């Protein structure tokens, strides 16, 4: 027989036999993804509700293929245990289970709300707000500041106008930091 005398041909035939055997064995063990028509129809209905119009046949086919691809990827991710190492996925799954397992929570009473507020009032406190008059002296600021102090803190007419005006009303410390700097804000507080 000529076929068995040629080593390359024998090698190819044996390789093809192994490949065919591998394909038959793995085909039996490969999980099937079965999706019901109801699942597909629910996806189509949901998309139509979002878009507020009926889907074309091409869009329905595309949505079906997309759903099948997503289902295959989700199942493979689950089989590989990817959810075990991803904190966001684990957190989302835990939240979902918590939601499913918890009963309806009764509304808190006014006394409960007041007790909670009293214990956590710092979380709800807003920053103190202040109003003041500001006078800006570009030149000879020490003499002008001394003159203001001598007049009992009343502004003098010889100051330079500040770009935000001379009267600043209802500002928090956080709002004043970018304007005057941290040192000024600490001095005010």
Briefly characterize the structure.
This protein is mainly alpha-helical and 189 residues long. Helix content is 59%, strand content 6%.
Order of helices and strands: HHHHHEHEHH
Biggest sheet layout: 2 strands, antiparallel
* Percentage of β-strand residues: 5-15%
Oligomer: single chain
The residue ranges in which pLDDT falls below 50 over 5 or more consecutive positions are none
Number of strands: 2
What sort of overall outline do the alpha carbons produce when their principal axes are compared? Answer: elongated
How far apart are the first and last residues' alpha carbons, in Å? 104 Å
Number of helices: 8
Strand order of the largest sheet: 1-2
Coarse structural class? mainly alpha
| Helix residue percentage | 55-70%
Overall average residue pLDDT: 79
C-alpha Rg, in Å? 38 Å
Q: How would you characterize this protein structure?
A:
The chain is mainly alpha-helical. Helix 7 crosses helix 8. It is elongated, with a radius of gyration of 38 Å. Helices cover about 60% and strands about 5% of the residues. The longest helix is centred in the first third of the chain and has 23 residues. A two-stranded antiparallel ribbon has the order 1-2. The chain contains 8 helices and 2 strands.
């Amino acid at each position: 027989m000529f076929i068995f005398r040629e080593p390359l041909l024998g090698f190819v035939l044996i390789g093809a036999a192994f490949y065919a055997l591998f394909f038959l064995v793995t085909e039996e063990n490969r999980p099937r993804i079965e999706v019901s028509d109801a699942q597909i129809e629910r996806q189509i209905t949901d998309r139509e509700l979002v878009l507020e119009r009926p889907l074309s046949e091409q869009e329905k086919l595309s949505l079906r293929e997309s759903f099948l691809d997503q289902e295959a990827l989700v199942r493979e991710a689950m089989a590989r245990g990817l959810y075990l190492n991803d904190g966001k996925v684990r957190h989302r799954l835990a939240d979902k289970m918590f939601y499913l397992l918890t009963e309806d929570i009764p509304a808190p009473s006014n006394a409960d709300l007041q007790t909670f507020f009293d214990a956590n009032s710092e979380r709800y406190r807003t920053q103190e707000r202040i109003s003041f008059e500001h006078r800006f002296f570009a030149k000879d600021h020490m003499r002008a500041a001394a003159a203001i102090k001598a007049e009992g803190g009343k502004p003098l007419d010889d100051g330079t106008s500040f770009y935000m005006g001379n009267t600043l009303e209802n500002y928090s410390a956080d709002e004043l930091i970018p304007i005057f700097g941290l040192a000024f804000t600490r001095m005010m507080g």
